[in-house]
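Example for tutorial group B:
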């Protein structure tokens, strides 16, 4: 008789422990995912040189946050081969998902020295260095205030094989 009582006690305690464990697990899940807002980044994905000398810069915007972010505007000073080319400005009002990226096309009539440096690099089939410096304005959601993030990037673009006038 004592043995059967202990067995039923153990079963009762096991049930209580199991229910308590499930409640703790459910409580931990109720807080939802962590909302982490990280600094975004921008870089040139591609530069297309038109016959008239104007450029189409494809600016890749990277959202490293764990939530979708709306990218309202950016203003980035562009230098190519150490020469000031101009400012890439846009107001894309683009929402980019968590830890994702998207591309915005920006038209630019470059300064003469930068235009010559890029034309020379294309003619010689060699890469050209560039830098971006400026800011991006983002908004996590409609209830939040806009935030500005400073951007500073240095990299290089190389001629795209088979695509005349294109640097990637």
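The residue assignment follows.
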């Amino acid at each position: 008789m004592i043995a059967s009582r202990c067995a039923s006690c153990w079963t009762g305690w096991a049930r209580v422990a199991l229910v308590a464990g499930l409640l703790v697990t459910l409580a931990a899940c109720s807080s939802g995912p962590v909302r982490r807002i990280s600094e975004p980044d921008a870089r040139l994905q591609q530069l297309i040189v038109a016959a008239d000398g104007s450029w189409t810069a494809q600016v890749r915007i990277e959202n490293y946050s764990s939530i979708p972010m709306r990218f309202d505007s950016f203003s980035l000073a562009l230098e190519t081969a150490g020469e000031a080319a101009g400012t890439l400005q846009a107001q894309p009002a683009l929402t980019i998902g968590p830890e994702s990226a998207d591309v915005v096309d920006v038209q630019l009539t470059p300064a003469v020295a930068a235009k010559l440096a890029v034309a020379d690099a294309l003619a010689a089939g060699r890469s050209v260095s560039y830098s971006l410096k400026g800011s991006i304005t983002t908004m996590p959601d409609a209830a939040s205030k806009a935030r500005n993030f400073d951007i500073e990037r240095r990299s290089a673009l190389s001629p795209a094989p088979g695509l005349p006038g294109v640097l990637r």
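Strands lie at 41-49, 55-63, 69-80, 83-90, 94-96, 100-108, 128-139, 147-157, 166-167. Compare this with the pattern of hydrophobic and polar residues in the output above.
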